What does this fold into?
Amino acid sequence: MSILVDNDTRLAVAGITGREGSFHTLNNRAYGTNVVGGVNPKKAGEDVEGIPVFGDWKETVAATQANAAMIFVPPPFAAQSALEAAEAGVELVVIITEGIPAHDELKLYNQVRRDFPATRIIGPNCPGILSPGKANIGIIPASFFKEGNVGVVSRSGTLTYQIGNELAQKGFGNSTIVGIGGDPVPGSSFIDIIELFEADDQTDLIVMSGEIGGSAEEEAAAYIAANVSKPVVAYIAGFTAPEGKQMGHAGAIVSGSAGTAKAKAEALEAAGIRVGRTPTQTAEIAMELIGAPA
Amino acid sequence: MDLLEYQGKQLFGKHGLAVSDGKAVTTVEDAVAAANEVGYPVVVKAQVLIGGRGKAGGVKLAANEDEAREHATNILGLDIKGHVTRTLWIEHASDIDTEYYASVLLDRSAKKPLVMFSTEGGIDIEEVAEKTPEKLIKFHADPLTGLTKEEAIKIATDGGADADVIEGVADALVALYEVWIEEDASLAEINPLIVTPDREVKALDAKVSLDDNAEFRHPEREGLGDSANADPIEEKAKEQGVVYVKLDGNIGILGNGAGLVMSTLDVVAQHGGEPANFLDAGGGSDAAKVKQAVELILSNENVKAVLFNIFGGITRCNEVANGLIAAFEDLKPEVPFVVRLDGTNDVQGREILEAAALPNVYAAKTMDGAAEQVVALAQSSTGQEN
It folds into this structure.
């Protein structure tokens, strides 16, 4: 098994007709993901290389039984599209779009929880989800990863590739790689994903990659100590980040004394979780914890 | 974006929060004219984005024109912890009976707006939270329904506001929440929120941060913030759509993806180096964008060596290599470059660089190795070899 996406995933994409949207949708399909439709109110009835385009999410789900949504529409409209996908009954909504206002994310999160509790949101501002050998939703370059027993959850895209690559060089493959995104109000947190990895047969080791800002890593540390039996190794980026500066990601900011990399690493270590000082060291710790892959 | 006090107060006024009449000025003559207009006594306040203005001599009371002139002369140009005062806010001095504290911010952990109120105003709120947490009332509002008057009255009452101003404090809290929501703020804070002897509730200070991602629906924000004290390279980067943060060291850094760049800074620091900047060239960078980024990095004259750390996903390494070659043709940099290319089209990218044989450009195989090498190069060029 993997988590979140597998061979039963039926993906539909909002923003499928855009340059980035079509490029990555077709990449996902080429990887083997079952892409069943797209949404664009202005291009309903057309198709993108054979993928039918519908006018809205309700129509898309009715026609295709899509059970996963990928949102590629521009920031002003992305949260609304995600909400409509949830309203149409889609259970997994992955928002790739970067630059969504924090208040839109806040309202989306609270409304989906209240009105559509069966829907899980991943992102925004995330690279998506890859279950190697099964399905890929998003922009993760799948060719660097193979099937295996390491689950990865990360707030950053390229840092995920870096750590994944270090693991791959040691022979590790992945059950699923989940980018939860670098924004202040992610739809899913480390805890949500770690809970899934803990229950997943294919996953023997969990790698979590955090960064400055907020307290999601500290909360995950407490959760892991109390609930997770599988080995976990962590990495935290941003030790050299100055206070009050947003480091690229909207959520990556040290405010006063809160959200520092040091505090996060200390909280994880105090909970018995080893923290790699570099991506390379993180992979080395993985090796120590579960041994070289067969 | 962080707002200056007077800009925050203008937003407060727009949403019905009481503030003192005042004027923002940039010259001594205008300061005196503004003081005469709002009426003495006035407060002359330095407009800078840093705390501790009062202690630094940036906030002064003036009883007459001579004093207003004297204070304006002294405060304009005053350097407060690296922030040079270019603007003054002149407002009519308020009589203060009591000082409270109020704020609204995003609680990332609870994923709700957090409304805070305390009767311990005018002092550092983190200190109140730490030493007397029972005096800081915290309330999570529902972002789908907003903060109601009833909720605000309960917050004011629980917080111990004087009975005769509970209504006034509640109105201020509702207005502050409205500022937070409608202006797309990440923080809206009043410290102190004062009660005058006439029992008026008024914002004596304003600390507001706005969400840059919401700029598209707030065209009125143009020109806000403290552009006079902004770093010129950061400003230029913003215009070009690149995320650049200036740091104090001498090793220029370029990477793709915020997390990877943060990690690169850390790894350089672990090898004993000091990064000169954070620069995320973003996903899908083409050669032109890479060249522009190199120009930004080199415009910081502290830079003694540059590290490229690319793990290509959407970004193609051959594009990065071509961008570096274009930058060398144009800018002829004198500092060494260490380049690590991995990911999409990495082999092609490395071949392009090798064939170009750029002077002083070193290819590195790993992120760790690249960091080590660039630190050594920076140190040898500044004569601090280990």
The radius of gyration of chain A is 18 Å. Chain A touches chain B through 62 residues (CB under 8 Å). Chain A has a mean pLDDT of 95.
